[in-house]
Each structure stands twice: as C-alpha cells, then as structure tokens.
C-alpha cells in the first residue's frame, strides 16, 4: 500500500534481514508494475556474501532508476565474487582516485542501465554518455554516519519529481554537499554539523543552492 502511494522507492541495504529482503522484493514488483522509480543504496555490498547476493538479486530482477554508493560498494556490484578488493571490506572505503570513480560509475551505469552515483570528496554521476562531477561538501561530512543515506534519500525524492534520474542524482549530490558547507560555517563538531545540515536542508532556497552548487558536466564515452 505504501509503495502504491509513493512517488519513488528507496531500498537501503544497511539493515538487511530475510524479512526486509522479502519486503523489498514485493515493493519492487509493485513499483515496477506502476512504473515508479526505484533507487538503491547498496550499503556495505562487498562486506559479506549474503549482503552482496541480496543486492545482486534485486539488481537482476528489477530495473533501477539510480544507484548511489561509495567506490567500494559500486566496485562490489561490478565484481564476480564478494570482497575481490581490500577496499570492499568496509562501508566507507579509503578515497580512490577521481579517474577510478569515473570508470566505476560509467561501467556500473552501463551494466545496470541506470544512473550511478559514486560518492567521495568529488561525487561522480554517470548515465549513458552523460557524466557529471560535483565537488560540494566538507571533509567533516565523511565522519558522520548517515550522510550517504541522506544523499540516497534525496536522490529518491528528486527521482519522484522528474523522469530524468541523472539530473535528480546530480542535484541531490550538489544539495547534500551544499547543506554541509553551509552548516559547517557554524558547526562546533560532528553532532552540530548533522543537525545543522538538517536545518539547512529545511530552509535552503533555490538562489542559495545555485550560488553554492559546484557542478561540472563532462562527456562520457
């Protein structure tokens, strides 16, 4: 019933269980039947066999509008077996090169025929021949658990407003980074930064967003 009323659906693999996977499969089928966009956050996809198998099951059975993850998580979705690289063991991997992230985003976007966002100090978004780099944000954001989940939520919310999942993901990346930058101006630590991000997200205007957004559109191959 909730899926039928939603404009978009987000699946977060962070608290995976058999019951939750079953619910995701039912929800995904309903969303597919109603042509609603589905967004995937493959949290820790390469950390365990079960987590990767469950994530791949969803990707095989349904077409997603967008997938958002860090470099290690997107790498896992392109691997043939779990934990093929050391970086895949963690939820938040050490920073890979920008070139690596561009390659990952483009390969995953091609394989799964959807928009893929690879997050980091510079976020990379790819879909078909379109590639964008978003350089908003502050280093302290990487120390807060849940900023990635918040970004995925924004991707899903915006996918519910437009049929262009690429533009939705680019806007979401710039928006989460922008609110982090603004909140950091008065934050005293990670706790006040997180609360400040939520407050800023509530009050931000289109003019402020345009002023802060750092988006570079590239040509994909």
UniProtKB/TrEMBL annotation:
EC numbers: 2.7.1.50
Name of the protein in its database record: hydroxyethylthiazole kinase
UniProt keyword list: ATP-binding, Kinase, Magnesium, Metal-binding, Nucleotide-binding, Thiamine biosynthesis, Transferase
InterPro entries: Hyethyz_kinase, Ribokinase-like
Cofactors that this protein relies on: Mg(2+)
Pathway entry: Cofactor biosynthesis; thiamine diphosphate biosynthesis; 4-methyl-5-(2-phosphoethyl)-thiazole from 5-(2-hydroxyethyl)-4-methylthiazole: step 1/1
EC class of the enzyme, as a word: transferase
Organism, as annotated: human gut metagenome
Keyword Zinc attributed: no
Keyword Transmembrane helix: no
GO molecular function, one term: magnesium ion binding
Gene Ontology terms: biological process: thiamine biosynthetic process; thiamine diphosphate biosynthetic process
Leader peptide range in chain numbering: none
CDD domains (UniProt xref): THZ_kinase
Reaction it catalyzes: 5-(2-hydroxyethyl)-4-methylthiazole + ATP = 4-methyl-5-(2-phosphooxyethyl)-thiazole + ADP + H(+)
Gene3D superfamilies, sorted: 3.40.1190.20
